[in-house]
């Protein structure tokens, strides 16, 4: 809840402010980074890496201990998840690549874990951080547009890579310049249309995930301002928000698979 003497606007701004580090005159400083291009959101990077390592470690441990007998609950959950992602890839991806299924699984679980941080009450971790001298702390990486754009740009690089690998530089160039109108006079118009379509893929991926999670986090912050009356509303919104958390992870995974499937198709 808001601390004494803090206005509603200050409370919201505080919770939406990242813990930042930037380079100023050959040395690194914490916060006071407004207007500095070389600024890192340290909290977003920390929680992203922490959750990624947690995902890799836990799945590796399950893979090492997996047996054909009676599985543990966690092993059964992982097996169901792997089969679900594998089925989604087989239904959507029509090329041949050993990367797509592991990539889809990684995206789904990693994005889900980052989204899941949104269910932690907004004052808990920032409150603990303030007790140890950390002034700001945002714990949901997917509410940081830098994180969602970084992930979508990685997907964009894969799209371009596989497009060139499967179709060749000539085929990829033809796809950009001779579609939808197969005539040399329409090349500038085609290039604009196809270029916008290509660039729109990573932008839509990142903004969709960021927008939904940012809005959800903002609602949690507004609910927290109610003080002792927040618990019923927090619970009801958290139950509904679970659907958003899972759905956004699924959408990011499926769109990635669809885009890479299109990159593998020769027109």
What does this structure look like?
The chain has one domain (44-264). The chain has helices at residues 8-15, 42-65, 73-92, 100-116, 124-131, 145-177, 187-224, 230-264, and strands spanning 20-24, 27-30, 39-41. Strands 2-1-3 form a three-stranded antiparallel beta sheet. The protein has 267 residues and is mostly helical. The chain is built from eight helices and three strands. The mean pLDDT is 90. A hairpin with a 2-residue loop joins β1 and β2 (27-30).
Short account of what is shown:
This protein has helices at 8-15, 42-65, 73-92, 100-116, 124-131, 145-177, 187-224, 230-264, and strands at 20-24, 27-30, 39-41. By secondary structure, it is mainly α.
Order of strands across the main sheet: 2-1-3
Largest sheet: 3 strands, antiparallel
Question: Quick check: average pLDDT?
Answer: 90
Q: Indicate the structural class.
A: mainly alpha
Quote the beta fraction. under 5%
Terminal residue distance:
57 Å
In total, the number of domains comes to: 1
Gyration radius, in Å? 22 Å
What's the number of extended β-strand segments?
3
Short key terms for the protein model shown above:
3 strands; mainly alpha; 3-stranded antiparallel sheet; 267 residues
How are the SSEs ordered, and which strands pair?
Blueprint: H1 8-15, E1 20-24, E2 27-30, E3 39-41, H2 42-65, H3 73-92, H4 100-116, H5 124-131, H6 145-177, H7 187-224, H8 230-264
Antiparallel strand pairs: 1-2, 1-3
Helix pairs in contact: 2-4, 3-4, 4-8, 6-7, 6-8, 7-8
């Amino acid at each position: 809840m808001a601390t004494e003497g803090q206005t509603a606007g200050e409370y919201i701004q505080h919770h939406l402010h990242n813990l930042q580090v930037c380079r100023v005159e050959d040395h690194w400083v914490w916060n006071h980074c407004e207007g500095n291009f070389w600024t890192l959101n340290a909290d977003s990077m920390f929680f992203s890496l922490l959750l990624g390592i947690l995902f890799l470690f836990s799945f590796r441990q399950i893979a090492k201990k997996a047996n054909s007998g009676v599985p543990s609950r966690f092993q059964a959950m992982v097996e169901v998840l792997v089969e679900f992602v594998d089925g989604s890839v087989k239904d959507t991806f029509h090329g041949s690549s050993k990367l797509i299924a592991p990539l889809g699984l990684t995206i789904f679980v990693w994005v889900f874990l980052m989204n899941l941080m949104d269910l932690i009450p907004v004052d808990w971790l920032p409150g603990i951080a303030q007790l140890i001298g950390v002034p700001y702390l945002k714990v949901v990486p997917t509410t940081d547009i830098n994180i969602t754009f970084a992930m979508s740009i990685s997907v964009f690089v894969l799209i371009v890579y596989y497009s060139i690998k499967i179709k060749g530089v000539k085929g990829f160039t033809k796809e950009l310049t001779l579609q939808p109108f197969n005539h040399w006079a329409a090349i500038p118009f085609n290039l604009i249309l196809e270029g916008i379509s290509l660039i729109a893929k990573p932008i839509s991926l990142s903004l969709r995930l960021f927008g939904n999670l940012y809005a959800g986090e903002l609602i949690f912050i507004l609910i927290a301002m109610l003080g002792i009356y927040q618990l019923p509303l927090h619970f009801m919104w958290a139950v509904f928000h679970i659907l958003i958390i899972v759905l956004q992870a699924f959408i990011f995974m499926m769109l990635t698979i669809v885009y890479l499937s299109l990159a593998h198709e020769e027109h």
